[in-house]
Amino acid sequence: MSTIHWTEGHTHRSARWHSENAAPLPQRIVVADDRTKAKDAYRQACEGTALLWQGDFHNARRLLRAMSRRIDRKPPRSTTSPSDAFHLHRRNSSHRARVLGKLLVLLDGDYTLALRRAPDVRQACREAYGPAKGPMAVSLRELLGVIGAHQWRVKGVEVPALGTRVHPHYGVFAPTRGEYVDLVAHAPLPPATRRSPATSTAFDLGTGTGVLAAVLARRGINRVVATDISPRALACARDNVRRLALTDRIEVSGPGLFPEGRADLIVCNPPWLPARPTSPIEQGVYDPDSTMLHSFLAGLPAHLRPGGEGWLILSDLAEHLGLRTRQQLLDTFQAARLRVADKIDVKPRHPRSKDVTDPLHTARSAETTSLWRLITTA
């Protein structure tokens, strides 16, 4: 971590700087409070100046919303293609994160937020950041995300396919889009798992919360190995496996993609869009150059038992955005010596697919999520 420095009156102060999206260290910091006007805060943030808030907590949230409205006042540029619309959307999102990330708050040595009317954020911060190590400055926007993640963790996300809730941790993609879970819950299992259920094995690659591993175990797979490259995801999956009383059926392993050995069924729900994530939570959506997708397909033949299947859960949103073609995907299957045994489709049910104000509405409204049942050709 780096250290930020600022002046209060004639006193020089410092604190550790933390940013989950790797925002650069603020080079100029001014103190802001309830007297700070939104237009001045927005101008300073656009110029690269960070504002360390020392006023009322709820006023800080109002200031953040006012700055956000000023960003929205800029009319969107017209685009000529879906891919242009996507890249413009990503640039706008990056600009928004950069400007709004300039409003900072200071967490004390035990993660106390010493602002008027501030909530107790200590537990939420311990869950997200680990043990406290002294005063730390973070953006208010990030802290609000930490608070929201703690609430999600406590409340959980209802998963109809399991008849219960799973509890996402900070930085782990939550299974709020239930259609992909339903695909795994209802697709016909490979014949090998039905012939020998007592010895059946499945891998869930990129398990996240562990939701798909739990679905497979509940469907009768005797042993499920769930992997992920993220330590946060591994901790989250272990927590949910324990909550669901499935520790005797599910082994959480990692960090890594493929575990050792072979399986009758290997499931992977990789990030759907080939683009660079800008924060930990975006790693569940964006994957540069589709690295995880290609790694899964390339490694599948070597890890499947005879008669086994690989299930790829993938949206075609990238195709509608002009980021990947269907032929490119099929060519990747062929290069990995894989054949499509079946494809099961479902239309999205999430609200954004019907939001006509979304800049990507045209592509989202045409989106289909598919479960590709892949078998080896060799």
Automatic annotation (TrEMBL):
<keyword id="KW-0489">Methyltransferase</keyword>
<feature type="domain" description="Methyltransferase small">
    <location>
        <begin position="198"/>
        <end position="316"/>
    </location>
</feature>
<dbReference type="InterPro" id="IPR050320">
    <property type="entry name" value="N5-glutamine_MTase"/>
</dbReference>
<dbReference type="InterPro" id="IPR007848">
    <property type="entry name" value="Small_mtfrase_dom"/>
</dbReference>
<feature type="region of interest" description="Disordered">
    <location>
        <begin position="1"/>
        <end position="20"/>
    </location>
</feature>
<keyword id="KW-0808">Transferase</keyword>
<feature type="region of interest" description="Disordered">
    <location>
        <begin position="70"/>
        <end position="90"/>
    </location>
</feature>
<dbReference type="GO" id="GO:0003676">
    <property type="term" value="F:nucleic acid binding"/>
</dbReference>
<dbReference type="Pfam" id="PF05175">
    <property type="entry name" value="MTS"/>
</dbReference>
<dbReference type="InterPro" id="IPR002052">
    <property type="entry name" value="DNA_methylase_N6_adenine_CS"/>
</dbReference>
<dbReference type="GO" id="GO:0036009">
    <property type="term" value="F:protein-glutamine N-methyltransferase activity"/>
</dbReference>
<protein>
    <submittedName>
        <fullName>Class I SAM-dependent methyltransferase</fullName>
    </submittedName>
</protein>
<dbReference type="GO" id="GO:0032259">
    <property type="term" value="P:methylation"/>
</dbReference>
<dbReference type="InterPro" id="IPR029063">
    <property type="entry name" value="SAM-dependent_MTases_sf"/>
</dbReference>
